[in-house]
Task: structure prediction
Amino acid sequence: MKIVLLSRNKNLYSSRRLIEAAEARGHEVKVVDVLRAYMNIASHKPTIHYKGEPLEGFDAVIPRIGASVTFYGASVLRQFEMMGVYPLNESVAITRSRDKLRSLQLLSRKGIGLPLTGFANRPDDIKDMIKMVGGAPLVVKLLEGTQGIGVVLAETQKAAESVIEGFMGVKANILVQEYIKEAGGADIRCLVIGGKVVAAMKRQAAAGEFRSNLHRGGSATLIRITPEERSTAVRAAKIMGLNVAGVDLLRSNHGPVVMEVNSSPGLEGIETSTGKDIATQIIEHIEKNAKVGNTKTRGQG
Result:
């Protein structure tokens, strides 16, 4: 197969592993910086060009699109879908999962466990919103934040009001969520491929930190998840429409709650902590499913 990997840096661990796994199974991989791809949209025959040459004849596309380039990256991916190329994750599913508010609303509608979450627009509503999510301590999150950036733990009512007012003052969109104290600064990353949890790791926050992201100094270890946690992760990925997803769970007193569903999960932490060859499992999934036009939305979403 000919596979195009949408990645801005082929030397990143995840990109490198996917290239190695694909080539080891006899496939040809072309790495494309998504911001350098450009499209002919007005034609009856949609095309994508890259550095002066047309990108054509590909069987599958693996999107590794950074959060900061979601809009343009999804547009390029949508063009591949319109050309009949099989996407590992579809553009609609990626944009759905990247919108934190929309994704939580979709998960809530299907009965997935979530932390109590508030969303408001005006400072006048802050006090009632804090009360709505159970009061301080609580977590304030930037809607556009990634890797723990723009996530603040407000431990008192006054601190919560100040932080929320500050974010609102600079017109930032934020979510306010209950703080799951019993999780003890740990979360669970479940890696879902094709409707199955293939690996899971526990991420523990560093001392004095409540964010468990590995980029924030957190540590990762192998963990055995419960059937309920497995089912929750699989359902969350399915609701988002993602073939491959990193589903982040917290263990709360009322069962597993979903924090986020990641459409471009990093492979380094999960491969290192579990010893599993996730990259090859992703390529095997593509081999089974990469048929021309095998896209639910066909670029229509």
